[in-house]
Amino acid sequence: MPGLPRHSVSVTGVVFRDDGRVLAIQRDDDGRWVPPGGVLELGETPPEGVTREVLEETGIKVRADQLTGVYKNMKLGVVTLAFRCSVIGGHSQRTDEAKQVAWLTVDEATRAMPEARAVRVTDALSSDGPFVRSHDGTHLLLQLSLRLQGRTFGAPGLTART
Question: How many Cβ atoms sit within 10 Å of the Cβ of residue 90?
Fold first, then answer.
């Protein structure tokens, strides 16, 4: 139907090393620290998209192990599928999209990342997912996330704005 708003579908890779550190990039466009990811292309599956995006942004080859969350940016209409991923090769390197690539502790990641991105890391550590959450690009929209999820927000150290 013409005139209806459209959504974009993106993927995020929450990549953990054996020592528990999580892969993060500092975005070149806005300087924010986030897990790697980007727009899903029409001809690829979500697991294919997340492996491509992580490799393009970081130089790390991964395997998508499990869907851990679905996140909607209510301002932009972007729906993101987040996957917990395992490293299968490659070496971290700066790219056109990433000023820096780093392996952070979970605590460092949740402090450095905007709330709407940090929760993807903590959700990937939980066995209660996949989670469904809504945000405004930076902060979780708690009431929407609670209504959709049917349970309380469980990311330690983060506070959601209502």
Answer: 13
CATH C-level class of 8-148: alpha beta
Model's pTM, two decimal places? 0.85
Task: Give the whole-angstrom CA distance, residue 159 versus residue 109.
Answer: 15
- Sequence-ordered alpha helix ranges (H) in the chain: 46-58, 106-112, 115-125, 142-149
Residue 162 predicted with pLDDT over 80: no
Domain boundaries, the chain: 8-148
Residue pLDDT, tens place only, 109-153: 999 999 999 999 999 999 999 999 999 999 999 755 544 444 443
- Please check whether residue 114 is in contact with residue 44, taking contact to mean a CB–CB distance below 8 angstroms: no
Q: List, in sequence order, every beta strand (DSSP E) within the chain.
A: 8-16, 22-27, 33-34, 37-39, 60-73, 78-90, 98-104, 131-135
